[in-house]
Amino acid sequence: MTKQILSIWVENRTGVMGKVAGLFSDMEINIDSIAVGDTESEGISRITITINGDDDMVNRIISELHKIVNIVKIKKLSEKDAVIRELAFIMVEASEDKRSNIVTLVEIFRAAIVDIGANTITIAICEEAVKIQALKDLLHSYGIREIVQSGVVAIDRDIKRS
């Protein structure tokens, strides 16, 4: 089984997200991540869903998704032909003597410090999941107080094919 990414454009109406998520539940397929937001078209939202499965499973899901009236478009994205990112906020214990080391890690990972408290630093990173995990692994020794991480968002690369 491999990581599969589905991009689903839907009418922005009450209950559509529930119908989409419910379909996966009905088919006993676990959603690894789900993210939804506005698109360039007014009244249309884009849902990005990642699952672990094979191509047959994805084809069955797509077939069933097309039966939902409010779905405008569905596209399976490949990792090689898409830009894929997640967002994470990581709040780290940061005493005065450790702050410069944490700042150095933030710079190396091209992350950003978005908040500084009396004893903490909150870091934002928008990257591929493996890079986010690498930063979390390195920050673990400082004491991670809290993490919140988004689901995958993805967009096709602008690749010209002949």
Structural class, by secondary structure, is alpha+beta
Total DSSP E strands: 9
Q: What's the order of the H and E elements?
A: EHEEHEEHEEHEE
Low-confidence runs of at least 5 consecutive residues: none
Based on Cα principal axes, name the global outline.
Answer: elongated
DSSP helix fraction: 25-40%
Share of residues in strands: 35-45%
Tell me the CATH architecture of the largest domain. Answer: 2-Layer Sandwich
CATH class identity of the largest domain: Alpha Beta
CATH superfamily of the largest domain: ACT domain
Helix count from the secondary structure assignment:
4
CATH fold description of the largest domain: Alpha-Beta Plaits
Number of domains: 2
Q: End-to-end span in angstroms?
A: 31 Å
Give a quick account of the main beta sheet: strands, pairing sense, barrel closure. Answer: 5 strands, antiparallel
Average pLDDT level: 94
Provide the gyration radius in Å. 19 Å
What does this structure look like?
This protein has two domains: 76 residues, 2-Layer Sandwich (Alpha-Beta Plaits), CATH 3.30.70.260; 73 residues, ACT-like. Chain A, domain 2 (Alpha-Beta Plaits, 2-Layer Sandwich). It is an alpha+beta fold. The two termini are 31 Å apart. The chain is elongated. Strands 5, 6, 7, 8 and 9 form a five-stranded antiparallel β-sheet that branches. The protein has a four-stranded antiparallel β-sheet with strand order 2-3-1-4. The protein is built from four helices and nine strands, in the order βαββαββαββαββ.
